[in-house]
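Q: My collaborator sent me two sequences in one message, no labels, and asked for predicted structures for both. Can we handle them in order? The first one she listed is below.
A: Yes, handling them in the order given. First sequence, followed by its structure tokens:
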Amino acid sequence: MARKLRLVGSGEIRTMLGGISRQRVYQITNRRDFPEPVATLQMGNVWLTEDVEAWIAARRGDVD
């Protein structure tokens, strides 16, 4: 069976980080240490959920 991709955009990242502002998500996702997006769509960048979850777990205190 094919592996199902789990993707997130900036809206989901906002929720994952506790409802931070859109501006703060933009700042965070543009950090040099933030995972690279796997695609850029008309609505914006998308990332692999597991990459973002790992990044948050490793740096949670740094992004609040």
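Q: And the one she listed second?
A: Here it is, processed independently of the first:
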Amino acid sequence: MMDLRAELPPRQQIADLRLAAQHIGTARRILVMGCSGGGKSTLSLKIATRFRLSYISLDRDVFWLPGWVTRDRGEQRNIIASRILEERWIMDGTNPSSLDIRLPRTDFVIWVRMPRLLCIWGVVSRWVRWIGRTRPEMAAGCIEKIDWEFVRFIWTFEDKFVPRIISGIAEHGPDVPVLQLKSRREVRELLDLLHAPA
């Protein structure tokens, strides 16, 4: 498994959760990335609520139309280009092909980088919870589903997408601090710090 800390310059890495919480508390625009099932939407929504940031879901607001129809790529980029102009937001979604327009407007990146088996468990348990319904962070008319193609996407995420993500961060956000969360415990600790009295 590739280690993000070995790929980013030391000045860009935030390893201390207290320091990360301080960054998040003052950031106006936060990008949350990671593999499906890792918990990035749940974390994004909690941070959005805590700091009154506009919550932007790439799945709900950009990619999907009802019935799991993919929106035209040009229209996707136009929507992203419009939304990033807002003053305060947290954007939930990885999409390496749009890092060129998102990272320059981002103050802080949270990389939710859970082990792939945990991500698969996350999507299976999410499917069970929302079976036959659409979850709030998904586009209307996109009933929760899971199939082998989606499982394969998760299983190969590190190999296929992480190099593109790291390259995108290096090229388009070389000065943006990045926090990497690799366990549920780290996520809980971060949330505790974010909700602690100032």
